[in-house]
Design a protein that fits this description.
Blueprint: E1 2-7, H1 12-28, E2 30-38, H2 52-80, E3 88-94, H3 97-107, E4 112-117, H4 130-138, E5 142-147, E6 157-161, H5 167-182, E7 185-192, H6 200-209, E8 215-221, H7 225-235, E9 240-244, H8 248-260, E10 271-274
Parallel strand pairs: 1-2, 1-4, 2-3, 4-5, 6-7, 6-9, 7-8, 9-10
Antiparallel strand pairs: 5-10
Length: 275
């Protein structure tokens, strides 16, 4: 059975993302491990209070009580979506959030990490904004980031962004495997810079490699990569965008561009990052 790690702070953003974790678990026959990480208070050891141990005990008890209250909420979300049969286990640990996600992903051989993320104005400061890109950098698991305003829709169309690099072939194969589970179509998009060298040979080779797969190839010439991708998502009614992890900076720019240019398009679809 595959494993999905779901880091959560029990915010509305996380609760919304949990629906995607449940749906993914259903389609790939996986169990979900929810993870809540808290940090103990930092103490100035020059003036350590006598009741230091009491401070830590109260903090841990408070976190535990808060955790106990929220776990049933996740179970209720599963029941609401008629997915109460999905196996769910819960982990509460103290320490650094990123370090614990990476550690558990490695120790438990996690296949997917699903987490909510806030974009635009809060990308750098929210719980699962900067966390998302750091997780992408430090784990080999497939990361599925769910933007805060993303409402679950069946995954019927997946957009895969590429520059037709060799490492993208294996990544696209992984996307195809997931698309078959969801019964999704795949659009493979290359946004070519106007001064870029012609790579028709690579494109034709890719078409030959994936000739038997349900993949449609698109090449658009433009300086505005992010704008083209956002437009493509809206025009083609894309339900998920997938990319190789080496495009992680692009993931961040999509959030920024959608706000700074005040485009009519918004990243309100899941983002799948694959190593």
């Amino acid at each position: 059975m595959k494993k999905i790690l779901f880091p959560t702070d029990f915010s509305d953003v996380s609760k919304n993302a949990f629906v995607y974790a449940l749906k993914l678990a259903k389609h790939i026959n996986a169990e979900i491990i929810t993870l809540h990480v808290y940090e103990l208070p930092q103490v100035n050891y020059i003036d350590v209070p006598i009741n230091l141990i009491d401070i830590y005990e109260v903090t841990e008890l408070s976190n535990f009580e808060n955790y106990k209250q929220h776990v049933p909420v996740l179970r209720a979300i599963a029941e609401k979506n008629k997915l109460e049969h999905i196996k769910i286990s819960n982990v509460l640990v103290d320490g650094d959030l990123i370090a614990n996600i990476v550690r558990i992903a490695e120790e438990d051989k996690i296949d997917y990490i699903v987490l909510g993320t806030k974009g635009a104005t809060g990308l750098a400061s929210t719980f699962l904004g900067s966390v998302t890109t750091k997780v992408m950098n430090n784990t080999k698991a497939v990361v599925l980031a769910i933007p805060e305003h993303c409402q679950y829709q069946p995954i019927k169309k997946i957009l895969f962004t590429t520059q037709f690099k060799g490492e993208d072939i294996e990544t696209l194969n992984k996307v195809i495997a997931l698309a078959k589970v969801f019964r999704s179509d795949i659009d493979c998009l290359y946004v070519k810079m106007p001064d870029a060298k012609d790579n028709e040979v690579f494109i034709e080779n890719w078409k030959k490699i994936f000739v038997d797969q349900d993949v449609t190839f698109h090449t658009i010439t433009s300086n505005d990569v992010e704008g083209i991708v956002l437009s493509f998502i809206d025009l083609h009614h894309v339900d998920m965008i997938a990319m190789h992890i080496h495009h992680k900076s692009f993931f961040e720019r999509l959030f920024y561009i959608s706000l700074s240019k005040k485009l009519a398009y918004h990243i309100n679809i899941p983002i799948l990052a694959i190593h």
